[in-house]
Amino acid sequence: MARGGQRNGSRRDRRESGSDRPRRRPDLRAAAAPADVHAASTVLMAALERGDYAAAADALDILAAAEPDNAALHYNRALALRLSGRPRDGFDAARRARALDPANGKAVFEVCACGLECGEPQASLEAGTAYLAVHPGDADAALNSARAALLLDRPEDALALLGQVPANQLSDDHRLCRGEALRDLSRFDEAECAWAHAGSASAGLVLSLRTKGPRGRLALNPARLSP
């Protein structure tokens, strides 16, 4: 599966996701028959074509149950779960994928992205730092990791992470996050300078950051693209 979905914040306060109504889940114990696996593969391809990540996640439940040691399936399931508004389940699936294949960079990225969205900033920061050690300067991973650092009250670390991103890859999201970190360090003039370089569409967010004061966080948008 290709990268999907957080550029403002794989990121700040938690998103509300999903419906309050419990969703029927497939019976995984009865899903390992070859016919069911073939059907799930067909459903998965169709779901991905139309961007239905909830249906894709359900199909991947069946496929992962049939091949529980397949790290790629667990990674894809993690991504589908996050993009369908279930970052906590995605976090568990991403950690399973990473445990099966520690060298799988995509799984490490998803631990970072899902962890940030589901309230696991320490795990998110650890995974993001590990990903950046192999992929230095990755704009998405640096932003996610910086946001996790802010949630852990580590603004200096957030600035260092954002400082890895090449200037031509900086977005308004990076500038807003940098301003947050500088604000938390009481470097208000520098924070204003960072926010001033954000586009006019971010004016409302900047106002919110100013009025929330140190350690006030903006709401999370959908998580960052996955590798």
UniProtKB/TrEMBL annotation:
Q: Compositional bias (Basic and acidic residues) at which positions? A: 10-28
Transmembrane feature ranges: none
Gene3D superfamilies assigned to the protein according to its UniProt record, in alphabetical order: Tetratricopeptide repeat domain
Which stretches does the entry tag as region Disordered? 1-33
Q: Which Pfam families match?
A: TPR_16
Q: What is this protein called?
A: Tetratricopeptide repeat protein
Native species = Jiella mangrovi
